[in-house]
Design a protein that fits this description.
Blueprint (H helix, E strand, L loop, with lengths): L1 H7 L7 E3 L14 H8 L15 H6 L2 E4 L2 H10 L8 E3 L20 H23 L15 E5 L1 E4 L1
Parallel strand pairs: 1-5, 2-3
Antiparallel strand pairs: 1-4, 2-4, 4-5
Length: about 160
């Protein structure tokens, strides 16, 4: 979702987006098929993404390190050098509807959980774009992706 929103906002030359996890469970693997299906219905293809773990150099490279939940946040705060802590933020802190809530992992639930997550992520991504551009009028078309993001300026973000 974030990549498409960045493109829709005309920021693809200024913003680099990457995706990474805090665990090594899915390194090299494609996203969950249910996530792929849910996001494909919103016009986004994430089938080519492959899992990777957050690397130490990500803390230096990215301006925004966006996490989905408190567990990811805590792990990255413990791991990152103190001068990079301000870069680590909950994605939903940018949301107008779901402010500071965790994006619950839908893996063990039903397909509706993926749809609910995408709704939350979509709202938060719009808020992130507003922050990056300083424009409170920014509105983007619907699209999505469900990993934490990393963003920097060239803005780079990692999920």
């Amino acid at each position: 979702m974030l990549r498409k929103a960045i493109m829709d906002a005309g920021l693809d030359r200024q913003v680099e987006v990457d995706s990474a996890g805090t665990h090594a469970y899915h390194i090299g693997a494609a996203p969950d098929p249910r996530a792929q299906q849910a996001i494909r219905q919103r016009g986004v293809d994430i089938s080519q993404l492959r899992g990777r773990k957050v690397a130490d150099e990500d803390f230096e490279r990215f301006d925004y390190i966006l996490v989905m939940d408190d567990d990811n946040y805590s792990q990255l705060i413990r791991r990152a050098p103190a001068h990079h802590h301000g870069k680590i933020r909950r994605l939903l802190s940018f949301s107008r509807k779901y402010h500071n809530l965790d994006v619950v992992d839908p893996y063990y639930g039903n397909p509706q959980g993926f749809e609910e997550n995408l709704d939350m992520i979509e709202d938060a991504v719009q808020g992130l774009i507003r922050e990056i551009t300083g424009d409170t009028r920014v509105k983007m078309r619907s699209d999505s992706g469900t990993h934490p993001a990393v963003c920097s300026k060239k803005t780079r973000a990692t999920f």
